[in-house]
Fold these 2 entries.
Entry 1:
Amino acid sequence: MRLHPLLKISRNHHPGVLLILRHYSPLSYTPPHFFHVSTRNPPRMAEDELRQSLANKQAAVDAQAAAVRDLKAQGAAGSDLDAAVESLKALKLEAAAAASQLQAAVAASNGDGSSASREAFRQSVVNTLERRLFYIPSFKIYRGVAGLYDYGPPGCAVKSNVLAFWRQHFVLEENMLEVDCPCVTPEVVLKASGHVDKFTDLMVKDEKTGTCYRADHLLKDFCKEKLEKDLTLPAEKAAELKHVLAVLDDLSAEELGAKLKEYGITAPDTKNPLSDPYPFNLMFQTSIGPSGLSPGYMRPETAQGIFVNFKDLYYYNGNKLPFAAAQIGQAFRNEISPRQGLLRVREFTLAEIEHFVDPDDKSHPKYKEVADLEFLMFPREEQLTGQAAKKLCLGEAVFTGTVNNQTLGFFIGRVYLFLTRLGIDKDRLRFRQHLPNEMAHYAADCWDAEIECSYGWIECVGIADRSAYDLRAHTEKSGVSLVAHEKYAEPREVEQLVIVPAKKELGLAFKGNQKMVVEALEAMNEAEAMEVKTALESQGQVEFNVCTLGKTVTITKNMVSVSKQKKKEHQRVFTPSVIEPSFGIGRIIYCLFEHSFYMRASKAGDEQLNVFRFPSLVAPIKCTVFPLVQQQQYEEVAKLISKSLTAAGISHKIDITGTSIGKRYARTDELGVPLAITVDSTTSVTIRERDSKDQIRVSINEVASVVKEVTDGHSTWADVQWNYPAHSAAGGEGTQ
Amino acid sequence: MRLHPLLKISRNHHPGVLLILRHYSPLSYTPPHFFHVSTRNPPRMAEDELRQSLANKQAAVDAQAAAVRDLKAQGAAGSDLDAAVESLKALKLEAAAAASQLQAAVAASNGDGSSASREAFRQSVVNTLERRLFYIPSFKIYRGVAGLYDYGPPGCAVKSNVLAFWRQHFVLEENMLEVDCPCVTPEVVLKASGHVDKFTDLMVKDEKTGTCYRADHLLKDFCKEKLEKDLTLPAEKAAELKHVLAVLDDLSAEELGAKLKEYGITAPDTKNPLSDPYPFNLMFQTSIGPSGLSPGYMRPETAQGIFVNFKDLYYYNGNKLPFAAAQIGQAFRNEISPRQGLLRVREFTLAEIEHFVDPDDKSHPKYKEVADLEFLMFPREEQLTGQAAKKLCLGEAVFTGTVNNQTLGFFIGRVYLFLTRLGIDKDRLRFRQHLPNEMAHYAADCWDAEIECSYGWIECVGIADRSAYDLRAHTEKSGVSLVAHEKYAEPREVEQLVIVPAKKELGLAFKGNQKMVVEALEAMNEAEAMEVKTALESQGQVEFNVCTLGKTVTITKNMVSVSKQKKKEHQRVFTPSVIEPSFGIGRIIYCLFEHSFYMRASKAGDEQLNVFRFPSLVAPIKCTVFPLVQQQQYEEVAKLISKSLTAAGISHKIDITGTSIGKRYARTDELGVPLAITVDSTTSVTIRERDSKDQIRVSINEVASVVKEVTDGHSTWADVQWNYPAHSAAGGEGTQ
C-alpha cells in the first residue's frame, strides 16, 4: 500500500478512509488537541468553562423568571415585582454576555476567530485572481466542472516560473535524475502500490435522488455547526462532538454510518435519508487499448513512475547510492465533492522527489549548508502536550533526534528555502511532524510543510522517510528485484543455514506427500531449523508440522540434514530507503497568491487598489512599458525599449492604450508586475517600482540593463535608487 | 467536427476513418502519386515498364523451356539440345536480372530503397537512446504497455529544453496568451468539437481470439507485401493494389471490409477469420465524479481548452484582434495497435497555438521578418503534377498565393526557424501543402512541416487556417456567443427588415390560432417578407403557409406591415478565423535524435562510437567535468569549477570515476554533451569540443565564462579556439 503525503491513505485501523488535509488529529478522547488551529489560540478549557458559566447563568435566568411568575400569580406588591423584573433583566444581560463570549471562544477554537474577515479577504483575492485570469473554472461556457480549473495567462506564467525555479533549486543544483512518465497507468502498478484497493473515500448517497456526498464531510459539517450555533449544548455533548471531529479520519465505514444515524443526519439538499457509507475509489478509471480487457487509471501521483524505473536509474547513476530522481507532472483524483477552490481539485500538478539512500547511512554531504537555518517547527512532542509550534534551529532538531536523520533534515531545509524564496511568508509557514498514528507503520519520520492561508493551515509539501516500502512492494508484485549492492572492501565470512532433505528416505516414508514435506523442511527459518537439528541430535526424531498437509509428521534423523556453513560474501544486497519530498504545486501557488496580495487606497483615496507583491522570480511578467500619451514618437521609443528587453531575455508587455497612466499602473500592480517603464521623453524614461511606487529616471540606453539587474536579483531597488535620480510622479498616480 | 492536423479526422466522404500519418494521398486512380516517398525517386512508369519487361522475359523463358522439352522428347541431336539449353540459361539470367531490377524499383518507390540500411541506422539510434535512458518503454518491470514511453534523465532534459525554447520562440517573443487547462474533459466539449462522434479508427477483431487490429493497417500491409514480394504480379494487379494504398484513408467501413474479404485477409497471428470493420473511438473514456452519470474523456488535443476560453482571452487582450493563445500539455489517444516507437504513442505532449484573426484581414505585422526565408516547400500543384518538393522563397509563395495569407506564411517561417534552430536538418525538412481532399471543407489552407527520418516523411507540425469553424461549433453547442467586435470609426447606415403583425386583426381572423400565425409571420426571412409585401400591395391579400398549423391561411393587407427601415450600426460583429500551428513534441524530438546521431571509429579503430551532435540549446547538459586521474587535488579543482558553472547557470556533471578519459569522453559524446572540461593541473584545464574533438587550454578562473560564451551561443567554438592555446590530446582519446 502506497502512502502518499499529499494523497494520504489512512492505514492503521481503518484502511478505507482517505485523508487529505489532516486538520484533525485522530487522538484518543483525553485530551483532545486541535492542531489545525492557530498556535496562539486560547486553551480549550476556557471554552468549557464558558459553556458551564452560560448554562449556570441560563439556569439563574430561568429561576428568576419563575420567581417573577410566582410573584405575579401571588399579586405581589408593585415594588417587589419591579425589583424582581429588574433582577431578571440583569440576569438576562449577563447570560447574553456569556453567550457572546462563548460564541467568540468557539469561533476562535475553530481557527476562524476572524472568520468573517478571512472570508472577505479571500473573496478579494479570488475576485482579483479570476478577473485577471490567473485562474478560472474550466469549461465555463458549459457551466464548468467542479474541481477543474484553467490557469489563464498570468497564472500560467506564475506556474511556469514556480516550476522552473523548482527544477533549478532541486533537480539542477542537486543533480537529480529527472524522468517524465505517462499519466495513463496499467492496473498492476497501482495494485502493487495499494491504490486500487485502498485509495478510497467513504461516500453516502441520497437514497431518493442518488446525489453523492463524502460521509466524513457531512458528519464534520454537522458537528461544527452544532458546536458553533447551539450555545445551550451541554459541556459533555460538546466534548463528544469535538471527540468525533478529532477521530473523524480514523472512523470505519460502520462507525461513520452509526454516527450519521445517531445524529439523524440527512442529505443536505433534500433532507432525504442517506445510504450506509461505502468506499469510492478516487482514481479516474479507463481502459487501455481496444479490447476492454486492460483496465488502467490516471495516476494519482507521479512517484510510482520513479519506483518502477529504480533499476535503470540506479544503473544510470553508476550503481551508486544515494541518488535522487524527480518528476513533475499531472496527477488525478476523482474527488466526490470538491471544495476549497484550487486547494482540492480533480487534476493537479505534482512535483516529487524520491531520494534513494542506504538505510544504514542517512547522512547527507550538503547537510551543513542548511543546518543553521531557523524556522517554525511543530514537533510531535509539542503537539501532544498542547504547546505551540516554535522556532527551532534545524541542525539542533536533527542533532537531538527530533528530525530522524540528516537527509530528511536536508530536504526540510531546502523546502524552507524554496518556499520562502518564492515569496511564502516565513511566519505563516511551519513544518509539522506527523504523529505516530498519522504515519504508516513502516515510515521512519514524516514532516509536512504547512502554509497558513484563509482556509487554515494547508499541507503543501510532504517530506517523508518511507523506508524500503515502495521498492519492496514492486519487487514483490513484479518479481524484479529492486535492490542496491554495496561491494565490501574485503570479502566477509558469513554463516549460512543449509537444509538438505534426504528425498529418498522422505519418499519412502511419505510417498505422495513427499513433495510437501520437502518444501516445508526447506522453508524453515533459522530458529526452527536449529530447533529441529537439536531435537534430531538428542532424540533421533522430531514431530514436524506440515501446514500444507494440515498435519504433523514424524521426521527422523536420516530424513534431513541441518547445518551451518561458512561462506564468503563479497557484497551487501539491500533495499534502499526512500526519502520523498512531494510538492502540491497548485496549493503552493494558491497560498503564494494569498501571501502576496494586499490592498491600498488610490491616491485620490476613492477606491481600494489590489496589488500582488510577487518577487521577480515569480512575477508573470517582469515589467511593462507605457508611452505616457498616445504619440508616435513615444510609441517608437517604447518599441525600441521592448526590443532591448527581449534581447536581455526579460518578459514584458507594452500597453499603448490611451488609459490614464494611473489606471495603467493599477492594472499592472494587480498582475504583480514589479517594474513599470513610462516613456515620457525620447531620451530618458522613468522606472517605477510596484510596492514603493517610487520612480527613478534612466536614460533609454540603460533601461534594459537596469531592469535586468533588479529582476535577476543582482541589485536591489534601493541600489538602483542610489545610482539614478528620483522622479517625482507629478500628476502620475493621482490621475487614476 | 474538429479537424486537428496532428490528429486528423477524415471528413469529406467517409467520416469514420481517422488519418494520422498521411503517407498516401487519397487520389483518384489516374495518376497515382506517392508523396510519402523521397522527392528524388524515379518516376513510377519505370516500375511498370520493368514489370512488363520481367513478364516478357519470363514468357521467353517459358517458351524456351518448352522448346527444350520438345527437343528432348524428339530425341534431337546433342548439339541442338545444348544450344537450346544454353539459350534457356541466358534467358533465365536475363529474367533474374529484370526481377532484381524490379525489386529495387519497388523498394525505391516505397521510400525505403535502402530499407535495410535505414533499419540498421534506426536500430543503432534506438539502442543508444534506450541504453542511455533518453527514453524507455514505460512500466518495463511489468512487461510494459504498448505505446507508452518514459523519458529518462537525458531525454527529459532534452524535452524540457525543447519546450523552454518553444515558449521563448513563440509565447514570449510573440506575446501570446499561454493557458493551462485540465486533461480531463467533459463529454459536451468533445461532442461540440466532433471528437465523440468522429474521432475513430476502423477496427477488426479476430473472430476466435478477440484480438483487435486496425483494418487499414492489415489492408496496407497486405498490399505492400504483395507488391514487394510477388514479382510476377501482373501490371494491372500491381496498379490496383497501388490504387488501394492511395485511397486507403478514404475507404468507408463497408469498402474496407469488402477489400479485406476480396483479398482473403485473415488475422495475422492466427489466420482466423476477421470481423467486419467497425469504428473504435480513440479517446480514453472515464467518468467524472462519483455518480457515474458524467462521462468524460482524456483530451485528444489541447486546442479545445483555448477555444472554450476565447471570450475571456479576447477580453484579456483588451477586446482586440489579432491575438494568439498557446498551450503546452499532455494529450491522449487510445491507439488500437501502436507501432513506430515514439512516433505513434498513446500519450504525448502537444504544443498548440491558436491565432485569432479578422477573416477580412490576415496580414501580420511581423511577416517581413520571415519573408526572405528560403526552404523546401511542396505545394499542392507540385504534388498533383508528380513533381518534387522545391526550394521556395516564403515571401514569393505568399505573394503568388501559393500560401493563402501572410499570417499563415508568418507561422510557416517561424516554424522553420524553430525546427532548424533545434538541430533539424533543413534538407530533411519540407512544408507540404494539404491537397483539397485532405482539408476540411471550411479550411482555407493547411501546411504540414514534415521531417524525414528512417520511417519516411513524418508530419511533425501542422499549420492550418481553420477559418471560423471551432468557435462556431462551441457557440452553437454552448449558446455563448464567441465573437469579436470591430467598432466603426463612424456609425454606418444599414437597412433592416421590420415585420409588425397587427395582433388585433389577426386575433379576430384566426382566434386560437392567432399566436402561431403571428410567429410564422415574424419568422419570415427577407425574401419571403418582400414577396408578401409585394403581394399585399398589389392584390390586397396573400396565401400564407403556416407550417405549425399545417395549412395555408389568407393574410390581408391590414393584418401585417412589412417595411425596411434604416438603422445606424456602430460595430461589426464577426466570428474570428483561427490559424493553428500544432506541434507534436515527441515526434520532433525523435526526428531530432535521428538527425543528430552519427557514429565514428574510436581512435584505436576497434569500435564504433555513438555521438549526438545536439546544439547547446538542446543538449541535456552543457558540459562535463573530468578530473584526469583520481587525485584529491584534481577533485578539489573539479568541485571549484562545478561551483563556478552553477553560479553561471550552466547545467553540468562531474564524473570522478576512475574510468579512462577516452571512455569518459565517449560516454559524454553519447549523451550529446557539447563540451568536456578535463582537470589535469591545478591552474589550468582543457576544454574539449564534442564533434571536432579539438581541445583548448584555459585557466581555471576563465573556464566557466568560456563555457558560457559557447553554450549561450555568444561565441562559436572557432572563436574561442582563436583566443586560447590548443591542447594536443596526447594519450587522451587514444586510451579508449
Entry 2:
Amino acid sequence: MSCARLLFFYYYYTYIDMSSTSTLKVGIVGASGYAGEDLARLIIGHPGVELAVVTSRQYDGKEFGSVYPRFAQFPKIQGLKFTNPEPEEIKSQVDLVFLAVPHGVATEYARPLLNAGIRVIDLSADFRLKSAAVYQDYYGAEHSDPELLEKSVYGLPERNREAIRKAQLVACPGCYPTSILIPTLPLLERKLIRPDTIIANSLSGVSGAGRKVALDFLFVECNESMRAYGVPRHRHISEIEQEMNGVISGEQKACIQFIPHLIPVSRGIHTTLYLDPNPALGSGDQFDEKAFLSSVESAWKEAYVNDPFVRVLNQFDDNRLPDTKNVLQSQFIDIAWKWDPRTQRLLGFSVIDNLTRGTSGQAVQCMNLMLGLDETMGLF
Amino acid sequence: MSCARLLFFYYYYTYIDMSSTSTLKVGIVGASGYAGEDLARLIIGHPGVELAVVTSRQYDGKEFGSVYPRFAQFPKIQGLKFTNPEPEEIKSQVDLVFLAVPHGVATEYARPLLNAGIRVIDLSADFRLKSAAVYQDYYGAEHSDPELLEKSVYGLPERNREAIRKAQLVACPGCYPTSILIPTLPLLERKLIRPDTIIANSLSGVSGAGRKVALDFLFVECNESMRAYGVPRHRHISEIEQEMNGVISGEQKACIQFIPHLIPVSRGIHTTLYLDPNPALGSGDQFDEKAFLSSVESAWKEAYVNDPFVRVLNQFDDNRLPDTKNVLQSQFIDIAWKWDPRTQRLLGFSVIDNLTRGTSGQAVQCMNLMLGLDETMGLF
Amino acid sequence: MSCARLLFFYYYYTYIDMSSTSTLKVGIVGASGYAGEDLARLIIGHPGVELAVVTSRQYDGKEFGSVYPRFAQFPKIQGLKFTNPEPEEIKSQVDLVFLAVPHGVATEYARPLLNAGIRVIDLSADFRLKSAAVYQDYYGAEHSDPELLEKSVYGLPERNREAIRKAQLVACPGCYPTSILIPTLPLLERKLIRPDTIIANSLSGVSGAGRKVALDFLFVECNESMRAYGVPRHRHISEIEQEMNGVISGEQKACIQFIPHLIPVSRGIHTTLYLDPNPALGSGDQFDEKAFLSSVESAWKEAYVNDPFVRVLNQFDDNRLPDTKNVLQSQFIDIAWKWDPRTQRLLGFSVIDNLTRGTSGQAVQCMNLMLGLDETMGLF
Amino acid sequence: MSCARLLFFYYYYTYIDMSSTSTLKVGIVGASGYAGEDLARLIIGHPGVELAVVTSRQYDGKEFGSVYPRFAQFPKIQGLKFTNPEPEEIKSQVDLVFLAVPHGVATEYARPLLNAGIRVIDLSADFRLKSAAVYQDYYGAEHSDPELLEKSVYGLPERNREAIRKAQLVACPGCYPTSILIPTLPLLERKLIRPDTIIANSLSGVSGAGRKVALDFLFVECNESMRAYGVPRHRHISEIEQEMNGVISGEQKACIQFIPHLIPVSRGIHTTLYLDPNPALGSGDQFDEKAFLSSVESAWKEAYVNDPFVRVLNQFDDNRLPDTKNVLQSQFIDIAWKWDPRTQRLLGFSVIDNLTRGTSGQAVQCMNLMLGLDETMGLF
C-alpha cells in the first residue's frame, strides 16, 4: 500500500474518531416532513459536518432512528435524540441551523437564532421574497418580520454563490422555481427570450405536497391519476418573477404562466418551458434562427460551465430529453432545449428531484458555501 | 312482478338465446394490442352486437379466452377462436369490421373489406388525413391508397355524427387529438381564440405506446419517471391542425405546439391548453373579459349540450379540475377552463382514457351510429 | 333487421322508459367509501335494478354525481341525491338495501330495516360470525344484536346459493376469506387436505384499507413499499375458520395461519396457499400422488362446474398462475394449483378484486339471487 | 478551524488529487444491467477505490456517463469509457474485478482473470453452489469449470467474513437467499427450528428480473398486477438449502418451500417465513414457549451483534414489521419475528433492496473485506 494511501486511511479514521469533538456541527429544526428527512439523509452522509441537534415538539426525547426507521443503527447518529431547546441553548451546540418548518412558522425561529449568532438556512417560503407586500399578496398573511427579507439571500448557488458564502440567512428556493429559473435566467439575462410570455408546465411527484395527511394524497386517490392544481396563481409564481425581474432591465417585466400537475411518482419535477425569442431579434425573414440557437447554446454553456450540478443534455446528445429518474436523490438538474421551426418557439426541459435539488440538496450546497467547505461535499 | 318487467325478462332471455342467429355481428382484425383488447371488452359487454370474428395471424386457431385470460369463461364468447380469413370469407360473417392493426397495415385490409361491402372502422392513423401529401410528410411513407382518404369520415362523434352514420369507412381520431379537439373546436369555430398560438401540453399513460416490447417501456424504466417525447413534431399534429382548419375560415391557419409526456400510469391522457383570446376581440382596456368568458361558457354549452359523453366540469363546480381517474375505462371526456387575469390567457383542461375514449370507445360510439343503434349503447 | 331483433329493441327501450316506475329498486346506506363506490358502479350498470336511494349523513342533499365525479351525467342516476332518511321512509322506496357502513355501525341499521320488512345485504363484518363470543374475541366489542347472527346467511354464492335466495339478511364475506375459502372448501370437504396446518399468505391493494385518511396510506408511504400487517391474528381468521369448520366433521378443527401484506396497487388480492395432504391418505410410499392430484382436480371441477365466476386456470393451461390484473373490476376468482413433489405440499393460488369480488360484486350476485334475477346479471 | 479538521481537509483533497495514481482500482465486467448500474453507483461513491475499468462488448468505446445518464458529469469518472479488453490487459489495470454478467457467462471470464492473478467477485449464480451436480440439476446445463466451485467463497459477510477476506473468488449470494438465510441460519444453527418444514414466501420488485426486454416486464403488464412465478422449484432453492445444510448437523436436511411473487415496485424484496419450532424442544404442555422465544431473541442478537447492516426490529419496537422502503438503496437487512400462540409457529420477516443488499452492496462489502478496507466503507 502506498504511503499516500496509508496517510489517507490514517486520517480517515482519525477524522471519524474525532468527529464528535471537532467537526462542524449543524442542527435541523422540525425534521418530521419529507424535506427534513431527505436533509437528514444528506447531512448524515456528509463527511464534513455532524448532525448534532434535531428538534421537534412532537418527538421530543425520542431517538432519531426510531422515528425514521431507515436511519436506525447509522453509526454517525448513534444516540441522537430529538430535543425541544430554546434558541439560546442551540447556540452552544451548532454552527448552523436548517429550518424545515412550514412557511409562517420559520419566521418565529429565524430571529432568535440569528440574534444568537447562528447562521440559518431556511427551507420554507418565508424569506424568499424581497417584498413584504408581495408575500402578503401570495401567502395571504402579513409577514411578521419584514426586516429579515432584506437580509436574506436567495439560495440558488449557481446565481448567488458569493452572496451565499457571506449570508447569515439563506432562503432556499422553491422546488418549482429551481426547475424554472436555472434554464431561463441565462436566456433572459442575454435578452434572448421574451420575459412576458413564458409558459412553464410542471409535473411533480406527490412528496411535493409534504407529509400532509389528507384525502387527496392517499395512495388510491393519486395512483393512476393525473391532475392540474394551483391554477392559475400558484404561490411560487411570486419568487419566479422576482428572480427573473432581477436579471432583466428596462421597462419590460417577467410575466409567467405556471401550471403544476400532480403525478403518481414519489419524487421528481419535470418542467416544460414554452419560450418566445425576443422580438428585438427580428421576426420572419429578419430572424436569424441559426444565430439565435447558437446564442442559446452559448448562454447555457457560459452560465453553467463551472457549475457541477447543471447538466446540459444537448452537450451529450441532441436527441436526449431529461427524465426525472436520472436525477432522483441527486443535486443535479438536467436541462435540454429543442427548437421548433414550425412555431418559432424555443422549448426548454428540466428535471430535478423536488426533495433533493428542490430542497435539501440545495440547502446542503448553500451550507457548504457558508461553512467554507468544498461546494460539492456530500452531494455526489 | 309487474307485467312490463316480465315482458322485459322474457325478451332479455329471448335475446340471449337468439343472439347467435340474429344479432348484428362484428369482427376485429388484429386484436392483439391494448386497443384491440379494450375494444373486445366493450364489444363483449355490448347488448346490441356480437363479436363474431377475431382475426390474427399469430394466434390463428387459439381460443380468444386463452390469449386474453381476463375474458376466459365469458358466456358471450364461448368457443370464439382466432381465425385468419380472406376478406371474402369475412363478408358473410359480419356486418362491420374494426381494424386494430398498426398504421400502414390498415390500408392493406381496408380496400378488400370495403370492396366486399363491409363497413370498416379503422383505429389506426391511415385514414385520418385528407391529404396524402401531409400523410407522407408526417408518417414518412407514401400512402398506398389515397383514394380512400377522400371517402373516410373522421370519427369524432360530437363533430361528425351525421357523416359517421352514413360512412362506409370511419377513421377513429388519435387519442391526443381527441383530448385537444373537443375543448378547442367550439372556441375556434366561434372565433374566440387565436388558432396560431395554441399550446397543448399532454400527459399520457404507458399503454399509449402500445404493447411494444422495448426497453423504454419496461416497468423499471417507466416507474418513477417522467419525460417528454416526440418533440417538436409528433405525428398527431397533422390531424389536429387539419380538423382545426376545418372549422376556421379566412386566411389564418391553425398552428399548434404539442408536447406529449410519458407518465407512469397504465391509462389516461391529461391535456393542458394555453389559449390566447382572439385579438379581434380587443386588447387591453378594449378587451371585455366578462363577455369573453361568458362566450366561452356558451360555446361549450351549445356545442355539447346533447353530447352524452362530454362533461363540462365548470357546470358542476368552478373549482374542480379534471382528473384522469374519473374517466378510466369510460367514453367520457371531462373538460374545464380557468381564466388567468394576470396573463390574459384562457387555460383549458381535458382528460380521457387513451384506450377507451381515445380508441375503442370512440370506435364503438361510431359503430352505434353506423348500425342505427342508440349512440350510447354499451358505453355506460 | 330481423323480427327478433326489432322486438328486442322495442323492449330494450320500453324497459328504459319504464324503469322509473317498475324496476326493482335498491338503496345503499353509507356510500362514501371505496366499496360503496364500487357497488354504485355495478348497480348503475345493472339492467335489472335501479339505484333509488343513497343515504349519507355527511352528504345529505348533495347530488350523487357531484360527490362521485366519475358518475356525473350518468343517465340512470340523473337527479339522484344523497338523503338521510329514517328506516320507515326507506321502506316505501326500495326492495332491498345494501349496508356499506363500518362494522359496529351496520348493526344499528340492520334491525330497523329488517323490522320494516326490507331485505338487507351487509358488506361489513357485523353478521358474518355465528358466535357472538367469537365476534367479541376478534372485534373487541360486545355484539349489540346477537339474535341477528343466527338469522344471517354467509353470502358466498358458490356455497350458499339456496340459503341466500331466501335470506332476509345476507352478510357478505370478507375479501381475504373469499380468496381463501373458494379454493380450500372443496378440498376440506373431501378430506383431501389437513385442516389444521393451512397457511394463507395474502397480498392486498391499498383500497383494502378503505378510504381512511391516515399517514400509513399516503401515496408516498405506500409507493415502493411492501409490508406485512395484522400479524398474527387478523380479524378475518374468525370467519375463515368458522366456514372451514362448517364443512369438516369429526374432531379436527381448522387452524389457519393467515398473513396479509400491503402492496402498492389500488385493487387486487393475491393469496398463496400452502396445503398439506390429509395424513389419512398415507405418507411416504403409501401416498398415491397421482390419485391425490386427480382428486384435487375433480374436487374443484365438481365444486364449481356450474359457477360462472370461478375460473380454474389448470383447465386452460397447467403453467398459468393467477394474476390480479385479469380479474380487476370483475366478479371472477381465478384459482390454480401446483404440486411440489420435493415438499409433498399442494400449493394453491387465487386472485380477486378486493373491491368487486371481495365486496360489491359479491353483494350484487347475492342480490340477484335474492330478487330472483339471473345470477350473473350486471356482472359481465 | 481545529488542527484536526485542517489535517483532515488537507488529506481529503490530497486523496482526491492523488486518486488516479495510488487508490485501489477495480473493474466491472458487463455493467449494462440493473445490478451493474447499482454497483457502479456504490463504487463511484466509495472513498477507498476507483472505478478504473468498465468493460462491455456492446458499448465498447462509449463514455460511461453517456450510457448511464445518471452518472454523466460525475467528477470521479470523468473520461471513463467502456472497453473490451483481454484478461491480460485488465491485470495491469485493476486490483479486483466484479463480474456482472449472466450466469453461464461468468464462468468464461473467471478462469482467465484468476489465472492472471486478479481477485474476482462474481454477481451471478455460477460459483455459489459447491456441487456441480446440483448446479446442473437446477440450472439445466453442465458447469463448465467445476474446479472453481471448490475455491469460491459464498459471499455472505455475516457468515463468512474471514473466508471472504482471503478469497480469490467470491460468489455473491442471490437476492432471495440473502433475505432468507440471514434470519434463519442462527435459528437452525441453534436447533431452534425444524429445517425440513421451512416456508419462505417472497415478494420482489421488477428489477429482480433484470433489464430483460420481454412482454412480461412491460410497465402495463406489471402495474396493478401481482403474481407468483418460479413455482415450485425456483433456482435459488439450491443455494438456500446448501447453506442451511452447512449449519445443521445430523441426519436431517433442510427442505425449503420457496415461492417468489412479482410486485409492481422497482426495487425491494419482502420475505415472510413460516417456521416450526424444533420438535425436540417438546410439544403441547412440554413446549416452553417463553424459553423458546428468549432463545430466538438471543440467537439473532448473538449472531448479529457485530454486524452493522443487520437490524433486528424487535430490539427497537416489538410491533414494528419490516417495510422495504426503509432499506432501499442500502446494505441493510431489516428482520423481525412474531410468535403465533394459536398456531405455535414462529413468523419471520425480512426486507432488503434486491439490487443493493441483494447484489451490489453485498459485493462491495465483500470487496472491502478482501482489500482490507473498513467493512462498511462506501455503504453508509
